[in-house]
Amino acid sequence: LNGGQGGQGGAGGPGGAGSPLIGQAGAHGNGGAGGAGGNSGAGGQGGTGGAGVGGSPNGGAGGQGGNSSTVIGAGGAGGAPGGPGASAGAAGQAGTITLGGDGGNGGAGFNASLAGANGGHGGVGGAGGLYGNGGTGGNGGTAGDGGTGGNGGKGGTSGAYGSSGGNGGHGGAAPNGKGGNGGAGGSINSNGIGDVKGGNGGNGGDATGGTGGTGGVGGTAVIMNSTSAATALGGTGGEGGDGASGGRGGDGGLSGTFGTGQAVGGTAGNGGTATSGTGGNGGNGGLAAITLETSTATAHGGDGGAGGTGPTGGNGGHGGSASTGGTGDVTPGVGGQGGTGTAGRGGNGGDGGSAIVGNDSSTVDAVGANGAAGGLGVTGGGNGGNGGAAFTYGVGTAIGGNGAAGTSGGSTGVGGNGGNGGNATIYNTSSAATPISGSGGAGGDGTTGGDGGNGGEARSDGTGNVTPGAGGQGGTGTTGRGGNGGTGGSAYIHNELSAVDAVGADGGAGGAGATGGGNGGNGGDARTSGIGNASGGNGAAGTSGGATGVGGNGGNGGNAYTDNISSATSFGGTGGVGGDGATGGNGGNGGDASTIGLTGTVTPGTGGQGGTGTTGRGGDGGDGGSAHIDNDSATLEAVGANGGVGGTGVTSGGNGGNGGDAYNNGLGNATGGDGAVGGQGGATGAGGNGGNGGAAYIDNPDSMAIATGGIGGTGGYGLSGGHGGNGGDAEIRDAASPATALGGRGGAGGIGITGVGDGGIGGVARNYGLGTAVGGNGAAGTSGGPTGPGGNGGYGGAAYIENAFSTATAVGGVGGNGGTGTQTGGHGGRGGDVLQAFNNGGTGGTGGNGGAAIGPAGTGGDAGDGGRGGDGGGGIFHPDLGTGGTTAPSGGNGGNGGDAGTPGTGATVGKGGTGGTGGTGGAGTNGNSATSAGVAGDNGGVGGKGGNGGNTTGVGGVGGTGGLGGQGGLGGTGGSAFNASVPGATGGSGGAGGGGGNGGLALFGEGKDGTGGTGGTGGGGGTGGPGSKGQPGTGGGTGGSGNPPVGVNGGTGGGGGTGGAGGGP
Q1: CA distance 28 to 261
Q2: Domain count along the chain
Q3: Taking the CB of residue 709, how many other CB atoms lie within 10 A of it?
Q4: Rounded to the nearest 5 degrees, what angle is found at the Cα of 204, between the Cα atoms of 198 and 210?
Q5: 536 pLDDT above the threshold of 80
Q6: Are strands 627-629 and 221-223 parallel, antiparallel or unpaired?
Q7: CB 267 within 8 A of CB 252
Q8: Phi and psi at residue 776, in whole multiples of 5°?
Q9: CA 887, CA 567: separation in Å to the nearest integer?
Q10: 951: how many CB neighbours lie within 10 A of its CB?
Q11: What backbone phi and psi angles, to 5 degrees, belong to 312?
């Protein structure tokens, strides 16, 4: 006999008495649970839960179905809630022994009628018995005005030998509120051999005046039985609810099988329609996976849901991926289309699903799905979806999906951007197939053009070629600017035996535009671990801006890397040329080139030329790419690429691009790239400045090579000439290296009509090792020609030696000479300073000569000052040798100051420069024992010679003062006078130091001779060591002598130095 049905649960009891503190009645009780079904024969259905009474209590839970050995009873329905916002009682669960019936359905949520009240949630569907299916979730209740609709109940889980999970309940509607969310579909994990399906997700509730509810996720469907040939189908995602703003569609359910049948991911729900806001986004398609290696079945990813229509369109969902461990096909899901924007922008298209082949014996191709199109719009078209990726461990090809084109913005809106191409990867080292990545989608046309999508990356662990995706072209801008081109895809080879070349894709072209052309896309990178070459993709040229717009910038070249100890070459991509326009676009930068090869070469890309400015400024040239050698035994030279030439302009020429840096960790030289010439400004505009030279670096303890900074670029021609670029710096980084650092020389100033550019500054040389550092020379100032002043010479570059054990000498760069001019000669550049605080001080650079004035009443330029000499280092303590001991060595000599240049001639001469200060002599150290005398400090460096006074019809120019130092520098020679009543100028005084310098000589003249300069004061002697006699002082310098025939007295000699202090007993 069958068991009887369980009794209905009783109503909830009355509420308790009100609290005297609160003064409110207590809530009524929840409804009682339904009685369990009887056990015998077929189990009875569980009783319905009692309803809640008064207030907002929940309904009682449904009773559990009766147990049976034949057919188990279904769970009872949940009780209705007692008031607004309460939940329905959960459905009773079916019996769970031996055989099973279906789970009971969840009770419906309470429909609220009061304003602002929430609808009750639907009850959860009961789980199916062993052979039963899951029960359906109850629908959510409708909300009162302004409330939230109840959520749909989740579908019940299927039994292990059932066929489907329960469907989720639908969300409740909500006038002027938020619609309830749809319940998720129930899942199924099957041990059987039949087809199985996950439950469908419930739809989101509609919300007039509010936000529609989210659709429920489709249930998962998995077959666990490896002998099953059945199909696993993921549940469909619920639709998003409609409303003022649309709800999101639910995702499709995942599907998987361990058997030989198909796996089909669930289709996603569409986004809800919007009346005043944004349409809902579509859900993502479900994943499909097959794991069995012997399976030949197909895995189908679920399709993404479409975006909802609205004033602004919703985005489409992504397609589901498809994966197999077998040898069958994979078909990923397509993305959902973007929703239409009826007043605003269209929604973006969804991405295509990825394709994955995980069986190393599979010959099938893995093909990613293409991206979906964006929606139409009034203010702008939607972006195209990205292409899906493709991966294979087999021997077939991997093909990435193409990015979708951006949707047109029409006559009123902005064009959408193109989607990116999908990546393509082969992980099988034995594969000779070619991965082909997806191309970037073109940008949509519109008032402003959309940008093109980037090309996908292509990678192979095998021996085949790689084909990265091209960058998409920018869209046309009908009233504004054209879209930028997409970046080309990168190419990667990860097999040491591969002999094919890795070549990055070129960037996409920019779109044409009314106010400006789009920028060219960058080239893709290239990297190989094999023995082939690597070539970065070229940057695309910037698009013309036409007669009124700005030219687009050129794209940057891609970088190139060879990661194999081979003779392969890395070629950096070339920077794109800037587009012409009213204002020219800038050129793109060249790509870097790097190798770890023993005999490999590096050729970085050159910078692109700046575009011509037809009414305005020319574009700047792009910088050259850097060169890197990272093999410590390599002997090849690293040379940075040259910068791109500045574009011609009307108001001014563009600046030249900078030279690329050079890095050498091997044994070869490093040379920075040269800066490029500045663009011409013509008869109306200033010439562009020359680019700076690239820096050079050597970092290897065994290197005896030379690091040379690049040469600065020449300034461009114009109404006023552009300045010359600075020379590149040079640096030796390893403390044990004897390599040499040479700063690059500055570039010449540009020729001008009314004025010329100054010469560039010499590059700084810095040596942390044991070698020499020589600052770069400053460039000479350019002649001003028949009308303009002469240009100033560039400063000499500084030189630094920063190693206490170095015996090398640092030399500052020579300042450039001033250029000649009609009325004014250019000033000479200052000599480079030296910083060498160890051992022997270095020599400061000589100042440049002033430029002559060639006009009838012109002024010659001032001479440049000499650079400062470096200081000598202190003595180093040495221990005793034997019983007699030894003295400690003296400190190093101070470096010499640089000489000053000669002033320029003219009706009025320029000033003589000041000689550079000599470095301080190093300190001596005391002897090591009472019988050992202390050692005097070495002399300071000789001061630089002061510049000569200029000749004149009046008083001769005063000679420059000699620099301070151990030996004072000679004073500058007094200028000759040509008027008998005017004496020659006094020679400069010698500097003070160890011994006084000689006074300046008075030259022969038609009138009186000048007076010789006064000798410098003698320096003091060194202090004696303990117990020893002090050292005597050094005598003063000789006074300046008079010259015949007139003869004058010589200068006064300096006084002797003070003797050293007496020692101990």
Answers
A1: 54
A2: 1
A3: 38
A4: 165
A5: yes
A6: unpaired
A7: yes
A8: -70, 150
A9: 55
A10: 15
A11: -115, 130
Q: What is the pLDDT of residues 338-366, one digit of tens each?
A: 999 999 999 999 999 999 999 999 999 99
DSSP lists the bridge partners of residue 766 as: 731, 800
Taking the CB of residue 981, how many other CB atoms lie within 10 A of it? 8
Cα distance between residue 409 and residue 476, in whole Å: 10
Residue 281's domain comprises: 137-142+149-155+162-255+270-286+306-313
Spatial neighbors of 387 by CB under 8 A, at least 6 apart, are 351, 352, 368, 369, 370, 371, 400, 401, 402, 403, 404, 419, 420, 421, 422, 438, 456
Q: Please list the helix, strand and coil fractions of the chain in percent, rounded to the nearest 5, in that order.
A: 0, 15, 85
DSSP 116: T
pLDDT for 921: 54
Tell me if 453 is assigned to some domain.
no
Nearest Cα residue to 303 out of 329, 281, 334, 282 = 334
What per-residue confidence (pLDDT) applies to 825? 82
Q: Is 211 helix (H, G, I), strand (E, B) or coil?
A: strand
List pLDDT tens digits, range 4-24: 444 444 433 333 333 332 222
Cβ atoms within 10 A of the Cβ of 145, count?
16
Structure token pair of residue 510: 């920019």
Query: For residue 601, what pLDDT is reported?
Result: 95
Q: Which residues pair with 731 in a beta bridge?
A: 697, 766
Q: Is 1024 helix (H, G, I), strand (E, B) or coil?
A: coil
Evaluate whether 344 touches 382 at the Cβ level (below 8 Å).
no
Residue 228 covered by a domain: yes
Checking if the pLDDT of 839 tops 90, the result is no
Q: Are strands 322-324 and 355-357 parallel, antiparallel or unpaired?
A: parallel
When mean pLDDT is compared across 116-130, 317-331, 373-387, 915-929, the lowest value belongs to 915-929
966 inside domain = no
Contact 687, 668 (CB under 8 A): no
Tokens of 822: 């009609």
In which band, very low, low, confident or very high, does the pLDDT at 917 lie, cut at 50, 70 and 90?
low
**Whole-number Å distance between alpha carbons of 649 and 657:** 16
Residue 194: CA count within 13 A, CB half-sphere: 10
Number of other CB atoms surrounding residue 883 within 10 Å: 7
pLDDT band at residue 404 under the 50/70/90 scheme: very high
Using an 8 Å Cβ cutoff, are 639 and 671 in contact? yes
Inside any domain, residue 278: yes
Residue 23 neighbours by CB under 8 Å, 6+ apart: none
Question: Around Cβ 978, how many Cβ atoms within 10 Å?
Answer: 14
pLDDT for the residue numbered 705: 98
Q: Measuring CA to CA, how many Å separate 685 from each of 154, 869, 1020? A: 75, 42, 60
Q: pLDDT tens for residues 597-642?
A: 999 899 999 999 999 999 999 999 999 999 999 999 999 999 999 9
Q: Look at the block and give the residue holding tokens 């993404």.
A: 304
* CA gap 130, 105 in Å, rounded: 17
Q: What pLDDT band is residue 856 in, cutting at 50, 70 and 90?
A: confident
What percent of the chain shows pLDDT beyond 70? 70
Amino acid at site 163: S
The H or E element containing residue 1019 is none
Q: Name 569's bridge partners.
A: 601
Cα-trace Rg, the chain: 44
Cα distance between residue 153 and residue 591, in whole Å: 58
For residue 45, the Cα-to-chain-centroid distance in whole angstroms is 66
User: How many other C-beta atoms lie within 10 A of the C-beta of residue 910?
Assistant: 31
Strands in 569-571's sheet, in edge-to-edge order, are: 502-503, 534-535, 569-571, 601-603
**Residue 843 pLDDT level (bands cut at 50, 70, 90):** confident
Residues in the chain: 1065
Q: Sign (positive/negative) of CA torsion 462, 463, 464, 465?
A: positive
The closest alpha carbon to 714, from 743, 677, 752, belongs to 677
Query: Between the CA of residue 447 and those of 49, 283, 417, 470, 473, what are the distances in Å?
Result: 63, 31, 13, 25, 16
Q: How many whole angstroms separate alpha carbon 762 and alpha carbon 752?
A: 22
Average pLDDT over all residues of the chain:
80
